[in-house]
Amino acid sequence: MVQEFNKVGVVGLGTMGAGIVEVFARAGFHVTGVEIDTSALERGQNHVQTSLERAVSKGKLTAEEQGAIMGRIAFSSTREDLGDADFVVEAVPERMDIKRDVFTDLDSICPPGTILATNTSSLSVTEIAALTRRQEQVVGLHFFNPAPVMKLAEVVGTVNTAPGTLEVVTEVAKRIGKTPVTVTDRAGFVANALLVPYLNHAASVYERGIASREEIDTAITKAAEFPMGPLTLLDMVGLDVSLAVMEVLWEEFRQPRYVPSPLLRRMVSAGLLGRKSGRGFYDYSTGKNPAEE
Ligand code: 3HC
Hints:
- This protein is α/β, with parallel strands linked by helices.
- Helices cover 45% and strands 13% of the residues.
- Belongs to the 3-hydroxyacyl-CoA dehydrogenase family.
């Protein structure tokens, strides 16, 4: 079945969606990236283009390969263009009302055999699946930022996901060069349930004035050889996304270690979301990350 699994749809072309389009196209799939907001569609297209150009300039791709990859990608502002997709990955913002709109639409547009996956990091896959009439063919396929680089893909099954669907999606994850792990639909799945409380804790350490932001980041990069310190990583992942994960962990488990840091909450309220808004723990308005200076 996976061999015939040729046309993929990606709905939502923010940073994650654009990265997911690139991953599938590089692995040889024909991909249609759908974004109904036309300026976001243009940004998503540019994101893919720039990422491939960077790979060419580094000698990781030839210009021919780049052309072939772009030739496998179609961009569209209409979900109806996914009427012949075998597999669709949703990567729209983390709001249930938006997911509802997308999944009810996809359920009526896509043929009965199409598998629908959500890249959600903070909403229940079970709740999303229940929006459709094909719960056995709905899964979570959770990528990590930056999607073209990070190797993990969490394959999230619900009580209603068919074992065959999990097998196919696990196989697809391998074909796109990811290392799949199969997990149950619980808040934070596995990786975020471990990682995001650590990031949240770093925000608390900063809030308590124990060390400067640079010292906190340096402590971790040098102590544990992590590629990024936690405050830099929070800025990259997005403070809003991290807060959303903390909130579902708290909601589901009610354990003190999942209480969101007050500073994180205030920064999100103030619009300091990290790189995407130009400022988080660091200021990116100059185009440079001060943590790297
Ligand atoms: N898109 C595509 N490729 C990118 C990229 C991006 N945004 N950022 C970096 N890359 C590529 C570079 O092109 C380079 O590729 P190459 O090896 O083929 O030349 C490679 O990644 C390394 O990049 P750089 O040399 O520029 O920079 P670094 O060595 O500092 O690596 C990093 C950057 C890969 C982001 C690294 O710092 C890292 O791994 N950081 C940790 C990221 C992480 O933990 N992500 C998980 C976050 S949690 C999450 O996403 C879950 C969510 O639900 C909250």
